[in-house]
Every structure is written in structure tokens, then in C-alpha cells.
Amino acid sequence: MLSFAAAALLVVVHLFSGRLRFLSGTPRSRWLSSAGGVSVAYVFIHLLPEIARGQRLFEDHAVQPFGYLEHHAYLLALTGLVVFYGLERLVKRRRDRLPKDADTPPGVFWLHIASFSVYNVLVGYLLLHREEPGLSSLIWFAVAMALHFLVNDFGLQQDHRGRFDRIGRWVLSAALLVGWAMGVFIEVTELAISACIAFLTGSVILNVMKEELPEERASRFSAFLLGAFGYAALLLAL
User: Residue 39 in contact with residue 151, Cβ under 8 Å?
Assistant: First the structure.
């Protein structure tokens, strides 16, 4: 029930993030920059150490279909980063060819949403099957992912305009619940969980930084810094 409550929180973020109009505009909202900082802090303080533990699992207990990755847990993190970087480049190129307020082509939209749906399935599954179990771990993971989804949703709204509000947020919400349901009925090996965490780690880093780095966003470095080191301090104090 606690993991379902966490999943419900993440669904609420998807469904209502578009109504938080005070977060829109340029320069970038301090709240969004702080949320990005929190997400990055969670990656570096919690997920990267879990990748290191996963690397040892790959080395000691590699089995098919993960045998090839016996010495390459970090390659999965790189793969997550590269996959989402490629998707962003594709979307931005198509976006630049369109009038300012036009929706992106349906094919590009569905490719983007499908990739984030896989992302959400992984997050939903990890609500139940993280390498570090327990209520405290669940709370910190859910808070970090909720703020991360808030950042992602504003980026997706900017890319896809009305189509994301009409369709995208519902698809992502459903994907998250599918991942949670899979976690209830399907239990995979520790190696597979490590692989999911590694891929997710690279994806989170890319998806946060792509929202913070572009100059035209006029991001708030002080807010990002506060979010990153404030959340890191909380995690380290546990």
C-alpha cells in the first residue's frame, strides 16, 4: 500500500503539473531549478553507489541475458544517457522547423512519449524493488522522482504543446501504474534490478541537465545548487 501511495503521488504530478502556471516562463522558475538539483543529488548520493554494488553483482553472478554486461554496468548508465540525448536532438530538430505554437509531428510525439513510458515503467517497478528496501528508501526515491517528473513534464509540454496535455500525461501516468503492477506480480533478479537502476541513472542525469543547461532557459544556478546540496545533506544525514 505504501508503494501504491508513492505511485499515486507520481501520477498526480503528471496529471496536474500543467496547472502550475507559476512555474512557466523565462527566466526559469527557481522551483524547477531546485527540483532538478534534488534529482541530480539523488542520482549521485544514492543511485551511483547502487550502480557500484550492481557492478560487483555483474562480476560475481553474471547470468544470461546479462552475461555480456559482466564488466559493463556503467555502460548501461551511458546507454540511458545517450538514448535520451538522441531523442532530444531528434525532437528539437523537428521542433525548430515548425511554427512557434504548432504541435510536433505525431510520429515524433509518440516516439518521445514511448521512450518516457519505458522510463516510467522502470520507475514504477523500482517503487517496489529497489536494491535498498525500506520505508525511508521509498520516501526519498518517491520525492526525488516526483520532482524529477515535474521537471520532465514542463520540458515535454514545451516540446509538444497541447498534445502532451491531451494525451501524453495520461499515457505516462498509465505507464507508471503498469510498472508498479509489474512489481507486484513479477520479481526479477538482483542483476536485472541493477541493470534498470543503471539505465535510469544515465537517463535522469541527461533529462535534468538538458532542462538546466540551455542558455535561453535562463536557469537559476543558485536554486539548482540549493536543491542539489540541500537534498544531498538530507540523504547523507540518514
Answer: yes
